[in-house]
Amino acid sequence: TIELMDATSLRVGQRDPEAPADLRELAVEQHAALLVEFQEESDDALAERMRTAPEVLGALPLVAPAELSADPARRAALWHIRKGLFTLVAGNRPSGTTALLEDIAVPVERLYATCTRLIELFDEHGYEDSVIFGHAKDGNIHFMLNERFGDPASLARYERFTEDMVELVLGQGGTLKAEHGTGRIMAPFVRRQYGDELYEVMREVKALVDPAGLLNPGVLLTDDPDAHVRDLKLAPTVETEVDRCVECGYCEPVCPSRDLTLTPRERIVLRREMERAEQAGDTALLARLRKEYGYDGVDTCAVDGMCQTACPVLINTGDLVRRLRAEHQNPVAQAGWKAAAASWGVVSRVGGIALTVADAVPPALPRLATDAARAVLGADTVPRYSAELPAGGRARRRVASETPAAVYFSSCTTTMFGPADGGDGVAESFLRLCERAGVGLVSPPDLPSLCCGTPWKSKGLTEGYAVMKAKVAASLVEATRGGELPVVCDASSCTEGLEVLLEAAGEHGIRVVDAVAFVASEVLPKLPEGERIASVTVHPTCSSTRLGIDGALRTVAAAVAEEVVVPDDWGCCAFAGDRGMLHPELTASATAPEAASAARARSEAHASLNRTCELGMTRATGEPYRHILELLDEATAPSRS
Q: What are phi and psi of 387, to 5 degrees?
């Protein structure tokens, strides 16, 4: 592999926070870079290649000696820059512009002249930050530019540039498209590249397989010389959270609502359609889109952030949805949830007691009661009771070791939702594991009244979130001795919620660690080897993925069971706090593929690392999902180990 990056590519790459130090420190002028990678079928062949390569590389006019490395981290860092160019350019384009990626190839010996002239064309036509990168070994390069296609003057500029670019490539004996196919933009120039005779052969073949002209008309072959500047897809400015979207669709496979309502890409596309309808004065279309968007775009978004893990420009569509929810919250709800934040210890206990009462009566009664309330107050306001919900949990227990290694912030979900049958919950298990390993813990004195803030933030309840943020930040500053001790939380979504809350409060010095990661690194090595069960199926969560602790989950699970099963098609369960109770159809749709895989695995036990996700997976599979630390506690208990 020989990958080319021009000077602008290098300057853009320097903006990446993960750029290697030698790239960041380079004073880029008219440099270019070649990313060279050798692969062979055997160690001996690779060794011979490595022996002869320095002679070739040494003949190049380099700013620093060429260094070939077999370090996978170094390799990943360099490839990250090369593969991240599209992300960096597209993600930083001016709002309202479209990122256009083109793909050309010329004979290798003409690559330098082509790139040189292409850079001149960028300057002549006023395209800034237009990068050239690609596969130099094959004479195949890509270039990117940003254009405001809705502006007539900009569109005319693009038309002039395209004409000059076509002349350049064809003049160098090249092809206007290489590995990405022709498409609409280059369709008017296919005849010019291949000539009349071959073009007519293409038309005859097309007529044979598609006599009615139904298949992608005008995409590959067209008689319209202006097809490349007609019907262009625009990207009007809508919201700062999502304006960077290039509509690639990488987010769609990981979205829990993809099979029910909308994907993140579709949520953004519809926001742009609303803006276009408003600009065009199409009030009927705008009204219909707004009405349908309430349920499809806002109510059924899990705001789990999984879209960001797949997005090349790092968009979290949940940020948009949370803001939209905040804008549509009524004053009564804001006031009520603000009061709840001020008295959260009482409110969470009342919630737990209500579930205990519901669990003691026939399930049809609380189900009918919540259905009636939903009919009056709305499905997005009142959670729906279902039979698999447990009784309420216990009040959070505070601990006070004289030599603490961490501050223990047990989740309030353990108060509202009791443990699965056969256990006494993650909080008790975590405390026993730490005691068994001789690891001391301390809790904030006002723990029962504290929460990570996610219930408020996810619903757009800004006033209540502000109250809870202030309480938690003040409490944890004191409990951690100003950040000296880490904070450990026993629910992955709450761990992430605490990170976000403390960052919003400006308390960057407090480190938050999930209990599973803490046990994997600080507790498990000090525990006796337990008696492992045959198999366990584990459900990673959106939060554990975003926190980067799925490896710790597997480590702990491996201490519990001989075989650890992570379904290939696992995804966010979309329970999302109470979202799965407000819209059960969302969780049912999101968990269907994973539930089928879990059933095929037939594991002895099922586990996760977040209580509400455990409830969602229990509902989906009919199997009791428990916190993985509960299983570890049982496996390493003195009576078993």
A: -65, -25
> pTM to 2 decimals?
0.83
Find all residues with CB under 8 Å of 102, minimum gap 6, and list them: 142, 143, 144, 145, 165, 185
CB neighbours of residue 376 within 10 Å: 8
d(CA 429, CA 637): 10
Amino acid identity of 125? H
Chain segment 252-277, per-residue pLDDT in tens? 999 999 999 999 999 999 999 999 99
Q: Which amino acid is at 634?
A: E
Can you tell me the distance from the alpha carbon of 7 to that of 18, in angstroms, rounded to the nearest whole number? 18
Q: Which of 184, 178, 109, 172 is nearest to 142 (CA)?
A: 178
Strand-pairing partners, residue 404, are 440
**Which residues lie closer than 8 Å to 303 by C-beta, 6 or more apart?**
318, 321, 322, 458, 576
The strand pairing partners of 406, in sequence order, are 441
Report the candidate in 505, 445, 515, 454 with the shortest Cα–Cα distance to residue 480. Answer: 445
Backbone angles phi, psi at 237, to 5 degrees: -65, 130
Return the closest-CA partner of residue 489 out of 516, 507, 462, 509: 516
Contact status, residue 614 vs residue 326, Cβ threshold 8 Å: no
Q: Do 228 and 262 touch, CB atoms closer than 8 A?
A: no
Contacts of 109 (CB under 8 A, 6+ apart): none
Contact by Cβ (8 Å): 405, 437: no
Q: Give the whole-angstrom CA distance, residue 134 versus residue 136.
A: 6
Q: Which two tokens stand for residue 161?
A: 């540039």
Q: 428: closest CA among 413, 414, 442, 416? A: 414
pLDDT value of residue 511: 95
pLDDT above 80: residue 296:
yes
* Helix, strand, or coil (residue 536): strand
Max alpha carbon distance in the chain (Å)? 88
pLDDT at 98 over 90: no
Tokens of 299: 């109510």
Distance CA 218, CA 213 (A): 9
CB-CB contact of 122 with 91 (8 Å): no
Question: Where would I find the H helices in 35-96?
Answer: 43-58, 72-83, 85-91
What are residue 512's DSSP bridge partners? 487
Distances (CA, A) of 179 to 134, 139, 493: 11, 11, 42
User: Would you give the distance in Å from CA 78 to the centre of its chain?
Assistant: 22
620 contact partners, CB below 8 Å, separation of at least 6? 573, 587, 588, 591, 592, 594, 595
Task: Classify residue 271 as exposed, middle or buried by CB count within 10 Å of its CB (0-12, 13-18, 19+).
Answer: buried
Q: How many helices (H) and strands (E) does the chain have?
A: 28, 13
Q: Which residue has the tokens 């960077």?
A: 244
pLDDT in tens, 564-584: 999 999 999 998 888 888 999
pLDDT of residue 640: 57
Give the span between the Cα atoms of 249 and 235, in whole angstroms.
15
Per-residue model confidence (pLDDT) at position 83:
86
CA-angle at 341, arms to 339 and 345, nearest 5°: 110
Cα 300 from Cα 134, distance rounded (Å): 40
Quote the tokens at residue 55: 């002679």
Contact 412, 341 (CB under 8 A): no
